[in-house]
C-alpha cells in the first residue's frame, strides 16, 4: 500500500455526495414537515463540505471557499428561521404537519 | 496540518461514519425527536471534518450556528407542533418509494463517478496558509466580499422580521377564562382563519 501524504480529496467528496443524496431522499419521502426542513439542512451541510474540501485542497492560499461556506451558513440560519415560522403558521391554520395535506396550491 | 496521517485517517473514518449513519437516522427514524438529536450529532461531526481541513473558524461557526441555533430552533418547533396524528395512507406509496430511491441512487452513482474519475488540479501544500485562515477570512469579508457581507446582514434582518410576522399568534378577541372582551388598543384585529375546515 502506498503511503499517503494526506487524506485524498475524493474521500471528502464522496462523503458529501452521500450526505446530499440522503438529504434528497429525506426531502422526497418525509411526511413530517419538520423532517423536510432537517433534510434541507443536511443538503446544505453536504454542499458546505464540498466547498470546504475544495477550498482546502485546490485554493488553500486564498480560501474563498471558506468565505462562501460562511455565507451559506448565514443563509441556512435565515432559511431555518423563516421555514419554521411558516410551519408554525401552517400548523395553526390546518392543525396538521402532514406534507400530503398541504395541497392548497395544487391545481 | 501537523497531525500524523494515521491519526487523520482514523478521525476521518469515525467522523464520516457518524455523519452517514446519523444522516440515515435523521431521515429514517420514526420518532422525530431522535431525528433532531441525531441531526445535532451530524452537525458536530461536520464541524470535526472542517477541523481536519484546517478551518478552525468555520468549524466554530458551524458549532455555534448549526448546533447552537438551528438545531435548538428545530427542537423548539418539534415541541410546538408535535402532535400524534394518524396519517392518511397514500395508495401509491410503494411506487413512489421505488422511484425516489432509484433517483437518489442514480444521482449518487453519478456524483461518485465524477468524484473518482475527474482529475483534480490540486495545489501544492506549501501554499497553504494553515492556521492563519481566520485572518484571511477577515480580510476577504472586509475587502472583496464586503458587499455580500452587508447584504447578508440585510437578509438576516429581513428573515428575523419575517419570522416574527409569520409566527405571531393571532390575538383573541375574548379572554378564554373569563369571557370578557380584551383591551386591544395597541393590537391588531384578529385575522380570520381561512383554512381550518378545508381539507
What is shown here, in short?
The complex is a heterodimer of chains A (107) and B (199). Chain A is mainly alpha-helical and 107 residues long. Chain A is built from 3 helices and no strands.
Write the layout of secondary structure elements.
The complex is a heterodimer of chains A (107) and B (199).
Chain A: H1 9-29, H2 33-57, H3 64-94
Helix pairs in contact in A: 1-2, 2-3
Chain B: H1 5-28, H2 32-52, H3 56-81, H4 93-117, H5 133-142, H6 146-167
Helix pairs in contact in B: 1-2, 2-3
Key terms:
heterodimer; A: 107 residues; mainly alpha; 72% helix; B: mainly alpha
Q: What would you report as the Rg of chain A, rounded to the nearest angstrom?
A: 18 Å
Query: How are helices and strands ordered from N to C of chain B?
Result: HHHHHH
**How much of the residues of chain B is beta strand, in percent?**
under 5%
Tally of strands of chain B: 0
* Oligomeric composition of the shown chains: heterodimer
- Main sheet characteristics of chain B: none
Residue windows where pLDDT falls under 50 for at least 5 positions of chain A: none
Task: List low-pLDDT spans of chain B.
Answer: none
Structural class of chain B: mainly alpha
Most extensive chain-chain interface? A-B, 81 and 93 residues
Structural class of chain A: mainly alpha
Count helical runs of chain A. Answer: 3
Distance between the termini of chain B: 58 Å
Task: Summarize the helix and strand pattern of chain A as letters.
Answer: HHH
What general form of chain A does the structure show? elongated
